[in-house]
Amino acid sequence: MDTIFALASARGKAGVSVIRLSGPKAWDAVSALAGKLPQTRRASLRRLRMEGEVLDEALVLTFAAGASFTGEAAAELHIHGATATVSAVLRALAGFEGLRMAEAGEFTRRALVNGRLDLTQVEGLADLIDAETDAQRRQALRVLSGAVGEKAEGWRRDLIRAAALLEVTIDFADEDVPLDVAPEVLGLIDGVMRTLRVEVAGYGAAERIRDGFEVAIIGRPNAGKSTLLNVLAGREAAITSAIAGTTRDVIEVRMDLGGLAVTLLDTAGLRDTRDDVERIGVRRAVGRAEGADLRVFLLDDTDDLPMIQPQPGDIVVRGKADLRPVGAGDVPGISAKTGAGLATLVETITNTLGARAASAGIATRVRHRERLERAISAMESACDEIARGPQRTEVAAEHLRHAIRAIDALVGRVDVEDLLDNIFASFCIGK
């Protein structure tokens, strides 16, 4: 492979910038600039020179092949983050024969090719780079740490054992096999299927942690929805007016609630109207509300909830509590003007979504869920064939091989090439 290099830290002026190199000529290039190399994994201050000119003073680190992120001989230059300094060092590296600028995600791709990461770990790293909230960070770190690969290895081991038992009965079909392997095979398959179904069931919550939950604020016109959104967002995200029907389209505000990424939706007031534009807004409001993860119904004096009804887990509150005294046993009141009840509302939203996030599995992407479902389907078919008798053993074994292949595809042992370009396109150049 070529030796690649790139700026690994953010572009622009900074206190320190990091340039990474990886490949067979990484150490030679750094030695040409910095002189004697430090011991591997130990930083040492060196003056970088090119044709007698001092480029900068830098901390130099080297990593041996097999012990670096990419699995290749690698090095890092921690230089001063001035734009001119970064450009000068990058120009110097580009002048060495056999060195070239890295493509997007190429360092991570080499880590995958060299067995330092599996495919799910690569996806976890991509999610970690994009993480905006604490929950996203924790979930991405769990995937990056190899949690998916560890579980997949256990599933694969059990399925291989089950398939091997079936193969024994095929190989010795003309002889007396002293043991009925069906009970052990079915037990192994059932154990794997049960854990896979749990992971599939937790996919929705994991996806929401990764992409964010949606919470729709629902109510009649002038119930105070836009004012509530603005207060929760801490800015004037939506126009507020005493004129009914001001909000025509769905307004979205991204927030961090309790470490969870949450998008609040301010929707058009729900009512029958002759205004064509407002009618479109109402239709969109109903559609987004029905598709949201959670709905906050904001009641007015009428206590009327037109067009859409609360689902289990939805939140119902009464708006403008500063103008309407709340009677005993009435729904909780809030006031965006005085702040009354808002802390409780935010806590309720956070706790409700947090409880759903707690059920998240390790499958965080559609690809993960599809591979798990494919494995489950193949195992169900294998069980059906075993139940039909010994004459179907060979077909059952083939279904188990399909299940093993689906698990292998999950972590990238097979069927990986068509995914790589799409995955690495989201990475920055220095990653």
Strand content: 15-25%
Show unreliable segments.
239-248
So what's the overall shape? flat
* Helix-strand category: alpha/beta
For the record, the CATH class of the largest domain is Alpha Beta
Structure description:
- About 2% of the residues have low confidence.
- The chain starts with a strand and ends in a 7-residue tail after the last helix.
- It is flat and about 80 Å long.
- The protein folds into 3 domains: 115 residues, 2-Layer Sandwich (Gyrase A, domain 2), CATH 3.30.1360.120; 128 residues, tRNA modification GTPase MnmE domain 2 (Four Helix Bundle (Hemerythrin (Met), subunit A)); 149 residues, 3-Layer(aba) Sandwich (Rossmann fold).
- The protein has 431 residues and is of the alpha/beta class.
- The strands form 2 sheets. A 6-stranded mixed sheet has the order 3-4-5-2-1-6. A 5-stranded mixed sheet has the order 8-9-7-10-11, sandwiched between helices.
- The chain has 14 helices and 11 strands.
- 45% of the residues lie in helices and 17% in strands.
- Helix 4 runs antiparallel to helix 5, helix 7 runs antiparallel to helix 12 and helix 12 packs antiparallel against helix 13.
